[in-house]
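Session log. Operator J.P. requested a structure for one protein chain; no other inputs attached. Running the standard single-chain path with C-alpha cell output.
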Amino acid sequence: MSNWRQMMPTTEAYLLDKALYELHHKPDDLAAYNEDKAAYLARFRLTPELAEKISSNDVAGLYEAGVNPYLLRAHCIGMRIPEDVSLAALRSLMKEGDDKWLN
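Structure written below.
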C-alpha cells in the first residue's frame, strides 16, 4: 500500500489529512478554525510544526509532509489562496528536469 509520497502513509500525514478534511468538509469547522486556529488544530494532536504548516498556509510544506494533493487543493480553495500562489509554492519544490511533462 502506498500514498503519493511514502510507501505507507505516516501518522503525521494521516493527521494532516484528517484535519484538512474536517476543516473543509464538516459544517461549522471552518468558522471554528477561523475563530481560534490553535484550539481547532489541537483537536488533531498535531506537532506544533505541523499545526503551523496549516495555520500559515504553507502549501509547499504541507505537500512535502505528505498531505493528499486533493485535500491540499481543497485547503487552498477554502483559504482563498490564489491559484498562482499555490502553484508557485509547489513549483518551488521541483528539481531540474521535473518540468518536462508540463510542456
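Operator note: The chain has seven helices and no strands.
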